[in-house]
Amino acid sequence: MAVEFCVLGPVEARIAGWPVDLGRARQRWVLAVLLVEANRWLSADQLLDRAWGDRVPASGRDTLYGYLSRLRRVLRATDEADIVRRSGGYELVVDEDAVDLHRFRRLVVEARAADDERAAELFAEATGLWRGEVCAGLDTPWAQAVRTELDRQRLAAELDHADLRLRTGRHTDLLVDLTSLAAAHPLDERVSGQFMLALYRSGRQVDALEHYRRLRTRLTGELGVDPGPDLRQLHQRILAADPALATPVPATGRLPAAVRQLPAAPRTFTGRAPELAELDRALTTGVPATGITADTCGPSGGTPGTAPVDGTTVVISAIGGAGGIGKTWLALTWAHRHVDRFPDGQLFVDLRGFSPDAAPLDPVVALRRFLDALGVEPARCPPDPDALAALYRSLVAGRRMLIVLDNAATAEQVVPLLPGSASCTVLVTSRHRLPALLARHGARPLPLGTLDDAESRALLAAALGADRVADDERATAELIALCGGFPLALALVAARLHLRLPLADAVAELRELRLHALDDADHPAASLPTVLSWSLRHLTDSQQRVFALLGVAPGPDIGLPAAADLTGLPPHRTHAALRALADASLIDPRPGGRHTMHDLVRAYATTLADDLPDAVRLPALRRVIDFYLHTAHTADRLLDAHRPQIRLAPAAPGVRPHPLGHYQEALTWLKTEYRHLLDAQQAAVAHGWHRVVWQLAWTLHTFHFRQGHHHDELSMWRTALDAAEHLRDPAALARVHRRLGLTHARLRRYDQARHHLDQALAVAERHHDTVEQACIHYTFAWAAIRRTTEPEAREHGLLHARRAWDLYRTLDLPVWEANALTMHGWFLAHTGDHDTAREHCRAGLALQRHHHCSAGEAECLRLLGWIDHLSGHHHRAVRHYREALALMHTLGHTYAAAITLDDLGNSHAALGHHDQARTTWLEAVESYTQQGDHDAARRVRQRLDDLKTPDGGPPPQSAEPTQ
């Protein structure tokens, strides 16, 4: 059955001509939002914001879902509209002609292209759809903005209709409408001009002149400006009773010619709501946009580059981003949605700043093309470029025009094409950020990034059909992930899928070939590598080499110190090169002086790096890996100054490790560069740099331990074992086996732990490495204490702890002597000898404090708390645990803090402080979960479920060493 929706007034719906009950007001307004955005995906948050504004109730999301469910039931009476749920959002699927708002827009567009008779009918039909205030009653900021925009579109249509009626001699009938319009818009010069002309042609010359006098008085008194040149000229002609003015221009069968150079809007454009809104804001407020899709909007009111005389500003929006990111699509989509705002025409030129087969277009050539479109015969064009630009500015002055300058290479290419009139709007798109245009002409950038997953899915659905995309959700999700939201990549894949290949086949090809799957030598514009290559043409050889080297740098992004070592350039020159690459939209600046690349851009850079000579590429990679290794070694020393250290080989020539001054600085650096350190090890493996491989694992041990990254630690040490075996270095081999044993023990893989520790001890004893033997015995004890319920493990652990203690004392390693002493006390506590255990821990605490080892101090305090808990001194246990936690939080020792929170909860529960126990255990669960220790998290959750005061139960299972 036919369905009709109305939003140009009270929100209503009719099915087969009969009104439909749309429910309460807010439910109607939810429908109004969907109708205004018909056939566009909206998230639940967007619907809430637009229908409720800042008054969303606590149950707003549930209320919204209820409204949508009821509206969906209402629409079931027709098969012509449906509310479809997609990816956490909703879309009203409907023929847009069924919605009065969209029908109004279609009628206006058709009227502007039709002959006079048909245009008059269409304009009348369009304006007749209005029944009052748009979305009446809805008062959210979104509704106000929509209402303002639609009122503006209605006025533009009414004025275009008035122009037609004036031209066709219907001025007498028009007077009533223009009288109302002039009263409603007293400062609108277009309305005033039409009203004055209708009055004059109706024989009311005096009234026309009086209206001009009142308008001029009001403009000068309220705004301090005179009427514009067009209205002043009309006034003079009325004053002189110009005979030509009294006779309507003979009908030509069409509206007055206007330049319409915009290419068609892209059919599959999706998303970009924030960027479109930003461009809308720039247009409605007259302030340059703060983003970048089309590159620039600058000041006007005079010669480009000079300050405007009257303070007005031509709106220039600069859209910037990488090749293939969708800059032109955004500019054209926005332009077509607002074409009614520019009734005097739209100019468009491709400046070919990054074209494969031609140099950037000379601005003089672009000016001549614009003048030709504006009706200037070639013979009238002056030869001087400045005079040519002046003629262009004169012709567009006072006109409501849109100028789209696409694919600009430089600001110098754009400046001559900027109008001098605030009535014009300019969109500039460029891969470069055009800083000179921003600084000298007031343009503010609109950076364009990748599409999110929902927008990517919508693009594929628009290109391939929603059913085909929905048929294979897994393939669609992987395809979107592999394209990384890059519009050109998605479009290229969609084009190939039009051959009806299964989505899974396209995914397999893209997964295997990645960038090569997006290459097409026969069609450069449909080849992502080729499109990206065009961005390099304006870069120096040095900048291109930096770009290529960034493709092989380990990690997801890079900071300036690492980049300087990678490139081998001084930091100031590296910074300049990075800035040039950012200006060319090849890399993206991030907070903290870091830079990142899209995965597909990085893949392209890697192909360029493969073409570099080995003498350039390999030393660059070695320098940046040595930068990470040597800086991480410094950081490790700051985290644990008492740890037995290894000696690194000298760094490669040109390496400048990042200076680190204190503990927190080291911890912050390791957190920031963590992913890079993992990737650096893999890069070292690929190039056979075996010593670097195991030493990177060594430098990250303390950080891994304290942050609870046990699975990453295991992976790194497994990789290190292969490297150590290649080196045939017994010291390295013993250390790697020991650390593998320790990591397996942490993960409760005791058989593997025992195997590696046996291997480590055999190597250390064979090569008489006493320090390593002590460390291995300590690690044996550490592994055994997690199995203290087994008498044999407890006995072996006690022996290993005693052996480690004895060895450390002979080696003059007091902090590790304290660790072993504390470990010995741990085993004694398990046997019930709490007093001796407490003495050992207090002695260990004194040593740790004397040698300023905060991590050891925290461990002793935690063990003292545990011994106090076992011996019934729960208040004292709580104090010790809290002291330990304070130190652990300062150290960033999240692994030990989780275990201590676990233990602290036991003492709170023993005291009957159930609220404190619950809070503490919840924090422990969160910390365990973040570290991936799901077994411990489950154990504590069970304790939360069974929370009660302990009554002589077993000792807490969380107690284990963390040092």
Provide a compact summary of the structure.
By secondary structure, this protein is α/β, with parallel strands linked by helices. The chain is built from 43 helices and 16 strands.
For this structure, the CATH topology of the domain at 259-447 is Rossmann fold
Query: What is the CATH superfamily label of the domain at 259-447?
Result: P-loop containing nucleotide triphosphate hydrolases
Can you summarize the main beta sheet?
Answer: 7 strands, mixed
CATH architecture of the domain at 259-447: 3-Layer(aba) Sandwich
Portion in beta strands: 5-15%
Structural class of the secondary structure composition?
A: alpha/beta
- Fraction of helical residues: 55-70%
Ranges where pLDDT stays below 50 over 5 or more residues in a row are 250-256, 287-313, 949-958
What is the C-alpha radius of gyration, as a whole number of Å? 37 Å
Q: First CA to last CA: what distance?
A: 75 Å
How much is the average pLDDT? 85
CATH class of the domain at 259-447, named Alpha Beta
Care to count the β-strands?
16
* Morphology call: elongated
- Give the number of helices: 43
Family: Belongs to the AfsR/DnrI/RedD regulatory family.
InterPro entries: AfsR-DnrI-RedD_regulator, BTAD, OmpR/PhoB-type_DNA-bd, P-loop_NTPase, Sig_transdc_resp-reg_C-effctor, TPR-like_helical_dom_sf, TPR_rpt, WH-like_DNA-bd_sf
Pfam family, one: Trans_reg_C
Biased composition (Pro residues): 952-963
